[in-house]
Amino acid sequence: MSRTKVVPIPVMGRHNINAYLLLGRRPVIIDAGTPGSGRKIYEQVAAHGVDPTDVSLIVVTHGHIDHFGSAAELHRLTGAPIAGHVADLGPFRAGRAREPYLPTGPMGRLMARNKHLHMRVEPFEPEVLVTGETDLEDFGVTARIMPTPGHTAGSVSVLTGRGDLVAGDLIANSFFGLVGGRPANPPFHDDPLLNLASLRRMLALNPNRLHVGHGTPLDPDRVRRWASREHRRLSRLEAAGRIRARAADAAA
User: 106-120, 134-148, 162-176: which has the highest mean pLDDT?
Assistant: First the structure.
């Protein structure tokens, strides 16, 4: 059994938007960044001494365009198949995220006005359809795709055999990754309560670190303390009828 290493691939800024490279017997890419960043990811993979055409799989963690915006381009550049969860096939096939975005706070309300979040990007059809926990050993890495719905209906994370959790937007750093090491919600969640349940389920697996789409790696104990506070906050909002969540039929 090979050991799988997690390598961050900055897509925007130093940590604002991240893709990841998993290194094992064969390389796997997690997430494809914003539209037009496929070549940048390709070149960073090569800079790590990896032939990008050896990439065995591209895992898209969810249906927001800062994570799948260059999936089709990266597929053409590497020849690797794309894996995505069936519950986010709508955005993948349409090339657009589900709208309206549901902000988690002031940052989300501000970002929801950004026209780039509402654009249409090149669609794609995942060749590897994820419906449940999926072993990636056949793709050359000791890791599993873990469904973690809530941020979107089809959100997934990837847990390596070494205990590294590549968590997509399950959790983020504060201010869209600008405040390193401080857990926070990303700007949007389709279902905050479901997302928190997914996060706590992943924390129960005792990961060593959480590698996120926005920001630097997070310490799991710090995330646990944050999750407890978030549970209390959401419970108050739920009791007051003030939680917005996307209806299940709208996730189709």
Answer: 134-148
State CA 114 to chain mean position distance.
20
State residue 14's pLDDT score: 85
Phi/psi at 207 (nearest 5 deg)?
-65, 155
Q: Which of 66-75, 104-113, 170-179, 185-194 has the lowest mean pLDDT?
A: 170-179
Question: Cβ(32)–Cβ(41) under 8 Å?
Answer: yes
Percentage of residues in the chain with pLDDT exceeding 90?
90
Edge to edge, the sheet with strand 143-147 lists 134-135, 143-147, 156-160, 164-166, 209-211
Could you give the 3-state DSSP secondary structure of residue 166? strand
- Of 146, 143, 124, nearest to 61 by C-alpha is 146
Does residue 31 sit in helix, strand or coil?
coil
Q: Which residue has the higher pLDDT, 181 or 205?
A: 205
Record the tokens describing residue 98, joined without a space. 């589900």
Contacts of 36 (CB under 8 A, 6+ apart): 69, 70, 73
Token reading at 95 = 């090339």
- Identity of the amino acid at 160: T
Residue pair 37/70 in contact (Cβ under 8 Å)? The answer is: yes
